[in-house]
Amino acid sequence: MPPSHSRIRRIPHQLWLGASLALLALLLALCSLSYLVYRDWRDEQQDNLIQEVLWLEQSLRMHLEAHQEWGDALARDIAAGKVDSRRFAQLAAFYLRENPELVTLERIDTDRRVEWDPHGLRRDERQLGLPEYDAMWRAGRLLRNSYGAPYQGQDGKYRFDLAIPIVHDGRLLGGLRLSYQLDALLYHQVPWWIASKNYISIIDLGGKTLAQKFDAAEQPGNISHQTSFDPPGYGLYLRAVSYRSGLGLTLPVLTVVIALLLLTLLYAVWRIRRHMRERLLAEQRLAKEVSLRQAIEDSMKSGLVAIGLEGEIVRVNRAFCDMLGFSPEELVGSHPPHPFWPADQHGVLADAMDAVRDNRQPEQGFELTLMRKRGDTLVVRLFATPLVEEDGGQRGWIASLFDITERQRQRKEMDAAHSRFLTVLNGLAAGVCVVDEDSAQLLYANPGFAELWQVGDADAPCCVLLPGLKAGEGEDIGQEFIVTGERCLLIRRRRIEWVNGEAAWLAILSDVTADRRREEREQAQQERFQNTARLIAMGEMASTLAHELNQPLTAIHTYAAGVSRRLPEELALPAGVRDAIQAIAEQSRRAAQIVSSIRAFVKKHEPQLERVDPARVVQRALGLAEPLAAKNAVGLQLAADRSPCRVDMDPVLIEQVLLNLMKNAIEALVEAGTARPGVELHTCVENGKWRVEVVDNGPGLAAGMQDNLFTPFYSTKPEGMGIGLNICRSIVEFHRGEFGAVSSQEGGCVFWFSLPLAGVEES
C-alpha cells in the first residue's frame, strides 16, 4: 500500500482521538467548574443566611427579655400598691404604642377574670378562654414568668402570651398578660436588610406556617435555615429561606473557558470534515466497480437480472436461467416483450416495468406470471433496485425473482382449510378461545366467545384474564364456573401447544345460566318442602303434646282442689302448706290454660282475647323469669310506665312472649360471659300503643345474625330449634302488633314489640 494511503488511514484515528479528548476535557471542565463555583456560592449564601438567622433570633430574644424585665418591674409595683388601675392604663397605653407587636396588656386575677386593661378598670367580668389562660396557668403554678402555647385569635392570626405573676408575701395575687401577634412581631422586629434578602417565617413542629414576612416580588430559593424560637418555645421555629440570586463574577470566567474549549472542538471537527471529503472521493471511484458485483453476490439464491433504461436485459445469473430454461445468450440484449413473457400477460408485465421506472414499486414487490421455455408457467415475486453510476446517474435496475409457485399452491390449500375450520368454529354456540399461558393475551376467539365474554372484537389482541387458568401447577385439564352479572358461564380448559410452540390454554365457554337457575329453583323448592314438612310435624307434635298434657294437668288441679277442700279449717298445719296447695292448683290451672292456648294457636283457632291491664301480665311474666335470672346471677329489673291503659290480648300468649324474650336474653348473657349481666324490662304508652322492650348488656347482634333472626329453624344455640322468635312474632302480629330487634348504642341488643291500646284503631 502506498505511504500516502497509510497516512490517510492513520489521520482519522488521530483526529477522532483528539476530538474525543477535547470533548471529554470540555465536559469535565464544565462540570468541575460549575460544581466548584456553585458549591462555593452556596456555602457562602448558607453561611450568610445562618449568621442572619442567629442574629435575628438573638435580637428577638433580647427584645422579649426587655419586655419581661419591664413586666417584672410593673408586677412588683402593683404588688406593692404603687400602681392603681388608672396608672396601669396610662403605662399600658404608652407601652402598646411603643411596641406595636403587642396586642393587649391586661391584669388577670386568680379566677381568670380581666381586672385591668389599657382602658382602666373592667367591670364586665370578662374571663379568659382556655388558650388565652394557658400562660397564666403555668405562671401561677411555677410563680415565675411563663410563655403560653401559640393559638389562633379571633382575627384568624396566631398569637402567644407572656404571663408575669403578681406575688405579695408569697401569695399569688394574679398576673400580667402580654399578648403578642406573631406576624406583627416579624413585621416590626425583622430589619429591612434581612427581609429584603430572605423569606422569614415562624413554623410549628408540623411545618405549618404561623406567621411570615416576605417580598411578593421575589421567588424563594433552595437555601434555608431554621432555629428554635425560644422564647416562647413550644416547638416554634424561626425559618429563613433566601431569595434566588445569580452567581456574580463567576459567570464571565465560566463563559471564557467554555468558548476556548468550543474553539478547540470546532477545529478538530473541521479537520475531520476535510478528511471525510478525501475518503468520499476515493469511495466514489470504487462505487461503479462494486455496485453490480455486490448486488449479484447479495442475491445468489434468487434469479437476478440487470435491466437497462429501455427495458433491455443487460445481464442474468445462472439461477435466473435455470428458473426459466433459457440460456444467457437467448436473454441478454432482448427488449420487451421478452421471450419468457406469456402472451396473455404482456400488459401486466409492461405495467410492472413502468412502475419500476416511476419508482412505484409496492413494498411486497410484484407477483408476476412468467413462462418457461418448455411452455408451462410459474409464479414469481419480483423486487427491483436502481443501478446508480459513480456520478449519480442511473444505468438501470437490478431485479431479483423468487419462485413462489409451490408456496402459492400451499397457501391456497391452507386458506381453504382455514376457511372451513373458521366456518365450523364460528357456527358453534359455545365460545372457543386460546389464551397465552404467561401473558394471558387472547390469541384466538370465535364470535361465540366474544358474545359470551363481552370482549367486543373477537380478533383484537387484547388481554383476557380467565379465572383458574394459572391455578394449579401441572394441571392440564380443568373447569370453573364464573358468574358475570346475571349469567353463569362454565369454562372447560386444556393446556395445549400453540402454533408458535408456546404453551397456551384452550378454553370452551358455555352459558349454563338456565341450568343453574333451574337447579337453584329445585333446591329452593326442596328446602321449602322440608321446612313445611318440619313445621307440619312440629304442629302435630305440639297438638299431641297439648292433648296428652291436658289430662295430667287437669288431674293435678283436681287433686290439689280436693286436698284443699278436705282439709278442715280448724286443723293446724305447718306454715305455708295451705298456700302451697293453692299455688299447685293455680299453677296447674295456668299450665292447662297455656297448653290449651298453644293447641288453639297451632290449630289456627282464634285465641281468647280479653281486655286486661298489661301491667298484671308483665308482673306475672317477671315472676316466672326471676328464678332463672337468680340462678344465673343476672340482674332483672322492671322500668314500667305507670300510665293506666287497657289492651285486648290473650294474657297467656303475651306472657309466653315476654318469658321467651327474657329467657333468651338471660341465656345470651350467660353464654357470652358478660361481666355484671343485667336485663331490663321497659314498658311505656306512646302513639296509641303499649310498647315493651327487653334490653340486655350483652355482646349484641352480629352483622349476619339480624338478617336470619326470624328464619324458621335458624338458631345460634346448639340445643335450640329456631322457632321461638318466629312463634313470638306470629303471636304479636295476630294481636295486630309489631315485633323487632335492634342493637343498642350502649352495647347489647333490644327486643321489642308493641300492641294497640283498646279502642284505638290501627293506623
Outline the structure in words:
- This is histidine kinase.
- It catalyses: ATP + protein L-histidine = ADP + protein N-phospho-L-histidine.
- Residues 364-416 form the PAC domain.
- It comes from Pseudogulbenkiania ferrooxidans EGD-HP2.
- This protein is of the alpha+beta class and 763 residues long.
- 45% of the residues lie in helices and 24% in strands.
- It is built from 16 helices and 28 strands.
- The strands form six sheets. Strands 1, 2, 3, 4, 5, 6 and 7 form a seven-stranded antiparallel beta sheet that branches.
- A hairpin with an 8-residue loop joins β10 and β11.
- α1 (3-79) packs antiparallel against α6 (250-297).
- The longest helix is centred in the N-terminal third of the chain and has 77 residues, at 3-79.
- The model is unreliable at 1-9 and 718-722 (pLDDT under 50).
